[in-house]
Amino acid sequence: MIKLKIKFSSMSKKNRIPDNTRHRELRQKLMKMILWPPEPSQKLRCSRPMLQRGGDFHILKELDGLSPETMLLLWSMMERYNSESKFKIFFETLPETFNTGLSFGIEALAALEGTLLFEEIIQAKEHLRMQYDVLCPLLCNKHPDIFQPDLYTWDRFLWACELWYSNSMKVVFPDEKLKTCLVPVAGLLNHSLCPHIIRYGRVDSASKALKFSLSRPCREGEQCYLSYGNFSSSHLITFYGFMPKGENLYDVIPLDIDAPQSDDFGNSRESEWTAHMVRGTWFSSNHELFNYGLPPPLLNYLRATLNGSKLPMETFVDTENEMAVLETLCSIFDPMLEGLGVLENDQSFGFQRSTAKDHIFGLGFMFSWT
Fold first, then answer.
1. How many domains does the chain have?
2. 248 contacts 232 by C-beta, under 8 angstroms
3. Matching InterPro entries, A to Z (predicted)?
4. Model-level pTM?
5. Would strands 190-191 and 225-226 be described as parallel, antiparallel, or unpaired?
6. How far apart, in Å, are the Cα atoms of 137 and each of 22, 71, 78?
7. 245 in a domain, yes or no?
8. What is the distance in angstroms between the CA of the first residue and the CA of the last residue of the chain?
9. Quick check: 102 and 128 in contact, CB under 8 A?
10. CATH number of the domain bearing residue 211
11. 35 pLDDT tier (thresholds 50, 70, 90)
């Protein structure tokens, strides 16, 4: 078995497991578990170490292009309700709902309409729904004795997706292969914009322990934070169910600008000048005159387009054209801010009228941009 080497004192009081005999026994069992997907070459047996019902999964060979990750979703759906599962105590500790953006209700989505978060959630759910429709009905129709329709529902498929999205982590094994795993206890580590752990955990073959290296000191009793990755707040809400505290350096707004047919892009590809990523100007180190804390390619494109010049352009044209650039920028960003202002002043979208956590969460995301 692989053990998890981590001090419980590094966790927050909220996540700390009560220190009585029963919970100590449970904790010891959980710390000897690590769940990871099989290699593609193991697809037909699927049982070492993950899929214990390997015989039941032999029919997966009938499906072309089935990835280990998809197999693991099917396994999670079945194993969650398997009373004889080796991982029964782990599944019993999991919540009925993960409250990620993938589970947002109609009210929350309505409040988010027109935002990047709304688009990200809708696209992700459409992708997952397509996966489900291609996979599960086929398995249930062909093998109802193994894949019971009441177990392989859309809601349970989505639950399995949320489980792996929000709780999995990448671990380096002794063979130097990087695998996506579910690790009890270690999964309690929270994300931070200034984490203690920024590198993958590694399985030590000598001690058979999963070890994490700290990039900065963590005092005893202090909550130990892990980096989930360089993600935007919308991504963290969609797949993890939370928004980080503080200013997220990776929050960006994509801008696609329609290029007039008369534009001359020289030797550059048009997409290099019409597609831009913009983040908060306060993150920029350049706030000199005519820079505004915005990306130079965006400003140069607007200057050249409004003045009829060629691209690339590295010099300012004139004050009049610069005013036109500022007016164009206002026309791009003002509607976004006005939409948020309407929501903030509209009592029908206020916190007083809603007790749904996902609705309040969505509103909090939008107001964080104002």
1. 2
2. yes
3. SET_dom_sf (IPR046341), SETD3_SETD6_MTase (IPR050600)
4. 0.70
5. parallel
6. 41, 15, 15
7. no
8. 49
9. yes
10. 3.90.1410.10
11. low
